User: Which sequence fits this backbone?
């Protein structure tokens, strides 16, 4: 993409309405624009990151054997009356009446809708196990929408639902989700720690939230410092292997790590004092096992191996796709702007032309740009007439992890500069070398 033909409305001033750094930077970098409280338009740069995050979520869900689909945003109130949640959900649910006076709602989550689909189409245990998911907009009429996309009213969520014959099978689905979430967040350059939590409006006993530690997080968390040393890394996993998934669950959840809702001071005391931590965190996902709560309420049974109708064991599993942009920025920025991890960056490399209009510099930039495009390095080429300082400031603000700087002085020696946004380090090299280096870096970020 050439910046001169792109739409990147960066702001010079820091918007007064934004209280936390991720919100400020998303506004300043021209990623989002508020349309009403807690509701945002995704401008092209923000939209690119949103799509990258969705892509990673899709890949990791499908790697775990979960099946993508798409359910509508508007749902019928009747289904929610069957589960008893139409009233229970309270004022957070946006209720709508259509022209025929039918009561509808903008879905805050989809347990009812998916259970309705499964009860109509799954009759035998032989069709199980089954995990379906989608990435779709949700609406929750939050009392205090704030912090930009972090606590929105309209927000994008991946929500997945498992249907199993037995409690054991459903717990395997729970563990499988935990593993896939660890992989998902790590690919985004994040450490998200599973912590025992409260199930709230979803119900059920077993639930873990995934927390990214950040001072601006809305949850208070208590944990054993050892949990911050764990990482899933690039190990292979067989998602059908029950023991293997249970082993990962054990590894990541056996130490003390809880949100304030389930915090147990007496248990926490048992963690050696030097490892006890109290901090704040951003909840970027949550997994639930709730047994037959919804299948009982909606009559979702299958014929079991003994020929008798058996209620389905279910769980639901959510990732805050749009919230993740805020969480990633909270975890990765400096005073100049955002620092995107390679896995989610909107463009993989920025190209800065220091002397736009100089034919040798322009043609070198054109060549580098064409080569980057051809290699899938997805460049953003600043080909505007802006002075060098302004170009650097914009690149730093929007946070592309790598920048190639091209100027007449370097070119005279056959060199450009490759700069890391994270370390700030610049190295002079031939253009082909810079591209080779980027090729190598991005090979591990498909
Ligand atoms: N049905 C279950 C799992 S699919 C569910 O709705 N779980 S949830 O309520 O925990 O939401 C899943 C994730 O959505 C949360 O972990 C959080 O990351 C994100 N989320 C929830 N509310 C908001 C909000 N108001 N703004 C942005 N993201 C949100």
Assistant:
């Amino acid at each position: 993409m050439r910046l001169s033909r792109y739409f990147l409305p960066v702001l010079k001033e820091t918007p007064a309405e934004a209280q936390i750094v991720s919100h400020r930077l998303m506004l300043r970098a021209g990623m989002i624009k508020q349309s009403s409280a807690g509701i945002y338009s995704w401008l092209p740069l923000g939209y690119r990151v949103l799509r990258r995050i969705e892509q990673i979520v899709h890949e990791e869900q499908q790697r775990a054997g979960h099946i993508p689909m798409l359910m509508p945003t508007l749902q019928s109130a009747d289904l929610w009356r069957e589960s008893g949640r139409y009233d229970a959900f309270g004022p957070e649910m946006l209720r709508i009446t259509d022209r025929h006076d039918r009561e509808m709602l903008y879905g805050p989550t989809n347990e009812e809708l998916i259970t309705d689909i499964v009860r109509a189409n799954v009759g035998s245990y032989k069709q199980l196990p089954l995990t379906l998911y989608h990435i779709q907009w949700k609406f929750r009429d939050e009392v205090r929408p704030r912090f930009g996309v972090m606590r929105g009213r309209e927000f994008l969520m991946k929500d997945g639902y498992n249907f199993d014959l037995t409690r054991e099978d459903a717990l395997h689905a729970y563990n499988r989700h935990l593993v896939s979430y660890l992989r998902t967040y790590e690919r985004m350059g994040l450490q998200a720690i599973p912590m025992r939590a409260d199930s709230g409006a979803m119900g059920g006993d077993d639930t873990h939230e995934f927390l990214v530690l950040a001072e601006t997080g809305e949850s208070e968390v208590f944990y054993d410092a050892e949990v911050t040393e764990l990482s899933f890394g690039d190990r292979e996993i067989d998602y059908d292997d029950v023991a293997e998934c249970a082993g990962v669950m054990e590894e990541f959840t056996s130490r003390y790590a809880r949100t304030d809702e389930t915090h147990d001071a007496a248990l926490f005391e048992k963690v050696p004092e030097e490892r006890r931590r109290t901090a704040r965190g951003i909840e970027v996902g949550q997994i639930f096992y709730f047994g037959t709560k919804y299948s009982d309420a909606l009559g979702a049974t299958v014929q079991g191996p003994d020929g008798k109708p058996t209620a389905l064991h279910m769980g639901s599993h959510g990732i805050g796709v749009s919230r993740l942009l805020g969480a990633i920025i909270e975890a990765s920025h400096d005073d100049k702007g955002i620092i995107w991890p390679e896995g989610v960056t909107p463009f993989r490399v920025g190209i800065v032309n220091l002397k736009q209009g100089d034919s040798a510099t322009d043609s070198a930039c054109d060549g580098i740009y064409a080569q980057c495009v051809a290699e899938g390095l997805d460049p953003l080429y600043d080909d505007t007439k802006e002075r060098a300082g302004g170009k650097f400031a914009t690149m730093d603000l929007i946070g592309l992890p790598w920048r190639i700087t091209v100027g007449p002085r370097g070119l005279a020696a056959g060199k450009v500069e490759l700069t890391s946004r994270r370390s700030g380090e610049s190295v002079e090299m031939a253009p082909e070398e810079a591209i080779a280096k980027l090729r190598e870096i991005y090979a591990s970020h498909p």
